[in-house]
Design a protein that fits this description.
The chain has 2 domains: 3-121, NAD(P)-binding Rossmann-like Domain (Rossmann fold), CATH 3.40.50.720; 126-271 and 307-334, Dihydrodipicolinate Reductase, domain 2 (2-Layer Sandwich). The protein has helices at 13-21, 36-46, 54-61, 75-84, 99-111, 126-137, 156-161, 168-171, 175-178, 181-191, 288-297, 309-326, 330-334, and strands at 3-7, 27-32, 50-51, 65-68, 88-91, 116-118, 143-151, 194-202, 215-222, 227-233, 243-248, 251-256, 258-263, 268-271. The chain is α/β, with parallel strands linked by helices and 335 residues long.
Length: 335
């Protein structure tokens, strides 16, 4: 049975703890966090040793799989060390906080015998899986275009409680790196790799609190020849459902949590999202456990996990290109 450890016991770690607790083929053996309060709370809640330093944890606990749920600027270094030791990695998005660190992680993954999974768990959502199936089947014809929105709310307290979220140096960006990157990933996965992009990012509501963006938009050209438009903001008054609409030659796909497929002949079909109980926030979706279980199930199989470092690099490059256009020198701010 694989031995698992979690590095980073903050907010999103709860869904990783839940996923491991629901699995019969994995054993949690250690937790790690530099913050004493979070570390002690996690080790007491789960009855495993806690460590301040992840290298000591790797030496002493010797996990087979490490879940990395730390602030963005720590992702690459920890993942690279794990992969160097042959330890499998489940990494929260983004791949890294800079393109350079992302490239380092890509090289480490290519050189390692261990596997890595990026937590783009929304690819496992039932409506999204059906969208991909329909598009791959060819029955809808060519994709003509797509649009997506992320209209959420974050206030100053959200950033003041975790200052790294609002900084270039540790967050690597704002809205696009921390929230909207999931929808960017779905857009490029469903419509095709992005080959050209024009857009802008700015700070409309939280400029007194953060140095990164809270609003962004772009138009993208995909390898399929289709064009997509994207808008995201944290200045909305509520966390509205993410939208993703795809127009094809024979139907329109409308994602609002659930999926509605409207065919040109008047037929309509709906695919409902699963409902699960979780201590995680509703906007994290329902599919972390599915991704994690799938990763563990494939550990003994040859080849990389299907959402690996190379897949994670695609959304990172899109976001960083948007930053390049909007904030000249932003990578220097990060590094």
């Amino acid at each position: 049975m694989p031995k698992a450890a979690i590095i980073g016991c903050g907010d999103v770690s709860v869904v990783h703890f839940e996923a491991l607790a629901g699995m019969d083929d994995a054993e949690l053996v250690a937790v790690c966090d530099a913050d004493p309060a979070r570390r002690v709370a996690a080790q007491e809640a789960h009855g495993v040793p806690g460590f301040e330093d992840y290298r000591e944890m790797l030496d002493v606990a010797a996990p087979d799989v490490v879940h990395i749920t730390t602030p963005h600027h720590e992702h690459a270094a920890i993942a690279i060390e794990c992969l160097r030791r042959g330890v499998h990695v489940v990494l929260e998005k983004p791949l890294a906080h800079t393109l350079a660190e992302g490239e380092r992680l890509l090289a480490a993954a290519a050189d390692s015998t261990a596997k890595i999974a990026l937590c783009f768990q929304n690819r496992y959502n039932a409506p999204v899986q059906e969208m991909r199936r329909l598009l791959d089947s060819g029955e809808l014809g060519q994709v003509l275009g797509a649009s997506a929105t992320v209209m959420w709310h974050r206030d100053a307290d959200y950033y003041l409680s975790r200052p790294w979220r609002g900084s270039w140096a540790e967050g690597g960006g704002g809205l696009m790196m921390n929230q909207a990157i999931h929808t960017v990933d779905l857009l490029q996965w469903l419509v095709g790799d992005v080959v050209a992009l024009a857009g802008s990012a700015s700070t409309h509501a939280l400029a007194e609190t953060i140095e990164v963006e809270d609003t962004a938009e772009f138009a993208a050209l995909h390898s399929s020849g289709a064009r997509s438009v994207f808008y995201a903001t944290l200045a909305n008054t509520v966390n509205a459902p993410v939208t993703l609409d795809i127009s094809t030659e024979r139907a329109t796909l409308n994602l609002r949590g659930d999926l509605t497929v409207t065919y040109d002949d008047g037929r309509s079909e709906a695919v409902r999202e699963r409902v699960t109980g979780s201590g995680g926030r509703s906007y994290w979706g329902v599919s972390h456990a599915l991704l994690i279980a799938d990763f563990y199930a494939g550990l003994a199989q040859p080849g990389p996990f299907w959402i690996d470092a190379a897949e994670g690099a695609k959304s990172l490059r899109i976001v960083k290109e948007l930053y390049r256009q909007s904030y000249p020198g932003s990578e220097e701010k990060v590094s």
